[in-house]
């Protein structure tokens, strides 16, 4: 397992097929995937296949990373950067088990990812996408320094794009 980042409370590392059960359980909670446009995996094996075929690390040199509690080594969720070759944009994303919401974990991990993107990957711009009604995610994007750019169609719902640029 390749460690990417460390914060006061968290370790961020590459996702592996060993994360399949946690990854599967994370997407089973309708509250967790409510604003994502994603559907839940049908079983752990489907999650394992997704992780096995997750090629962002090889293709782009970065991707979404497992967020692990330093204290007890618990899988809390994921956070990271994703490059979209169609738009040429890199976005910040995060998803956590509901019991870890409102503890500053998304902010802590996403802030570290933004810093990593600018300092280590030399990115010039990072965006964050959210459904307009997802107030919690928008609040995280604002806390980590992104500002509103524009609205867009998010799978038939009103979406917003926030951005941060390196100067």
From TrEMBL:
A molecular-function term among this protein's GO annotations: acyltransferase activity, transferring groups other than amino-acyl groups
Pfam family, one: Acetyltransf_3
Keyword Transferase attributed: yes
InterPro entries referenced in this protein's UniProt entry, alphabetically: Acyl_CoA_acyltransferase, GNAT_dom, N-acetyltransferase
Alphabetically ordered keywords of this record: Transferase
Chain ranges of the N-acetyltransferase domain: 10-167
Keyword Transferase annotated: yes
Protein name, entry field: RimJ/RimL family protein N-acetyltransferase
